[in-house]
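Re: beginner question about structure tokens

> Can someone show what the tokenized structure looks like for a real chain? I only ever see the sequence side.

Sure, here's an example I had lying around. Input first:
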Amino acid sequence: MHGTTPKKQKALKCARQSLGTLEKVVNMIEADRYCPEVIQQIDSVIGLLKTAKRELLAGHLDTCLLPKMKEDKKKAIEELLKIFNLSG
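And the corresponding structure tokens:
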């Protein structure tokens, strides 16, 4: 682990915020709130998680990729391909 970088800090902040918003979504559904309001909150969760993912990927490329490329280029490339294939 490379410690908490600014990118990881931002990703963590977004992940925590998405968790809080997701709890709000659950409560809204349980309270039978108006569907468009719930959908708007779901979109907020998705956006926050996309931001967290983007920040983690950028941090990984900035701090982890070069050492991995020097250590095992093929494995590093396979790892990146896996990340991007899962990202759809």
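Each token stands for a local structural state, so reading them left to right follows the chain. The longest helix spans residues 35-63.
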